[in-house]
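Consider the subject:
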Amino acid sequence: MKFSILVCTLLFGLSAGVSKAGDTLSVSLPQAEAQFVARNLNLIANKFSINESQAYAVQARLLPNPTIYVEQMPYNQQSKEAFPLKQSNSEQVVQVQQLLLLAGKRNKQLAIAQTRTDIAADRFYDLIRTLKYQLRSTFYDLYYAQQTLPVYGQGIETLQRTVGLYQQQYDKGNVPLKDLTRLKAYLFSLTIERQQLLRRITDDQASLTVLLNTDATTQIRPVVNINDLNRYRPDSLNPAELINMASQNRYDLKGFVDQQKQEEQNVALQKALAIPDLTLQATYDRNGSYIPNYVGVGVGIGLPVFNKNQGNIQAAKIRVQGSQVAVAAYRQQVDTDVQRALVKARQADQVYRSFDRGFTDSFGKLIQGVTLNYQKRNIDVVEFLDFFDSYKAVQLQYNQLQNDRTQSVEELNFAVGTSLFEK
């Protein structure tokens, strides 16, 4: 029998592309990041926590309100008058009090409120760091998954046609059942693998839809400049410099440092609270004193005899000690994250650069010779499918190699807290 139809079908399938229907949004990474910052709902919602903390700082600046006390005689039994107003037969007392905070309590409370605002900002910017890492990681994963999809599409389309032709030849008794069964089994295997890849693409699409706040029906197509990715050189980075950069850019670490600062400010506040506040008072007594229209001023202050705020001061000092240990522990964790991410990025980059990128092109051309031998029946269908499976595996592994390298760089960016290779 002649296999020319099968050969043409196979070669056509290997060169064919995959088209996608529906609305598609082609977006580069800088465009995606800009839309993420402007439209992500989680960021918008968490931004309000900073505004809330700023409002508390405004509240901390305010002085205590004065207190006014008014006393009126309700009934004069001698004149039989209710609420008498005449000075000769009535009594009114007016007192005004103003609390004065001593020992700088107001300034110390304001400092704590401002530090709380800093902590809220730390959490917000760390959320940006975390979500941006998710965005970039998903962006590249979707890109390489979409680059991989045509490998399955081409293979499945080719095998479907080949199986159809083989079925016809089998019905005529020209090919054995084992060859037809092997083709069908391999087609089934490719279909299952493609379905798993489509599920991964769907998950990535859904994640990007939420991160970018786009319409759920829009298909996102990442646009990547490979030359930009080839500029990544993790081996040129200095570990000590990266650790120093992480200490400056990791807002989760800054959050621990600011928490320690707040605990230290709380110790100062608790010591100040041990000092009583001063109360100023002015009194007007219309007719109840030894002279009419009495006016007096007074000063009141608590006596710190029993309660000197000792317990709260001790508790605040203990919290400072705990926060110092927490900062040291988290700083160690950050240093470890940077070191681990750098090692992984260097390993992935080394493997990528040692790979002969012309190998995949040569492998693609080699399939023509294999197909010719298959046509001449120098190799059987099992050998042909084994080679085709190797061709598919090389294409998939090369895409995965590029994805792993890019993901390791993004993990390093995440550990350091900034994009290391951006222009």
